[in-house]
Amino acid sequence: MSDTRPRLWQIDISHFSEKARWALDHKGIDHNRRSPLPGVHIAVALWLTRGASKTFPVLELEGRTIGDSTAVIAALEERFPDHPLYPEDPEQQRRALELEDFFDEELGPYARLAVFHDLIGEPELFAEIAVQSVPAPMGRAKGLVGAYARGYTSLRFGADNDEAAARARAKIVAAMDRLDAELEANGGEFLIGDRFSVADLTAASLFFPVVAPENAPVPADQPTPAAFEEFREGLRHRPGYAWVEETFRRHRKPARPVAAAASL
Prior knowledge:
The chain has helices at 15-26, 40-48, 69-79, 90-106, 108-120, 123-130, 136-139, 142-157, 162-186, 198-211, 226-233, 239-251, and strands at 7-9, 32-34, 58-61, 64-67. By secondary structure, it is mostly helical. The chain folds into two domains: 7-79, 3-Layer(aba) Sandwich (Glutaredoxin); 90-251, Glutathione S-transferase Yfyf (Class Pi), Chain A, domain 2, CATH 1.20.1050.10. It has a four-stranded mixed sheet with strand order 2-1-3-4, covered by helices on one side.
């Protein structure tokens, strides 16, 4: 019998994939996951979406194939309205979607680039982390996997560019400024209204590479490049930093165990 559950195509350590995973788990949706090799996933995404998307996450849902984490959440809200992520009030919903877009565009790409830039400077550590995202037999060739990871992130994201990394760090600080301001304006617990919404989910999931909270895809005790740890240390005192940790602690609890298929 074929598996008719929703299927999430993901990259295990991706914060945009985490955004989609969190939405599925928040709603308690039984699903399966597939994790192709990073890099190879571009061809898979193009094939699945018939050229509409070249990256993950991609969700297969009842005959539809949906690329982009924002579109994935919109589709889940429509099909599975229980445990909503969109506020009921129209103005609150507008603001929540505005914040989702802000953190998608002004935080997500830069959090990724900043981490990869500093990992390139520590090849051994990058190799240790990279082997976690490849099939077990490939993990035995750690040096080759590390070289692949450095080359891929340089070509795909420009992660070897020092000026780009400096801009990325400035963007992260600006996103933290916005997070702090929004939390203060709304009382400090949620970004919009009085309950967890897509705004909270997006901000927390896209900040996870910076904050490394418990329950995140990368363990809190995962070694971090020294340069990035120094940058992170400068943010630890911020209210938004503590809020990301608390949001993962309180709200990032999988609804049920979901076994990911072996990486391709």
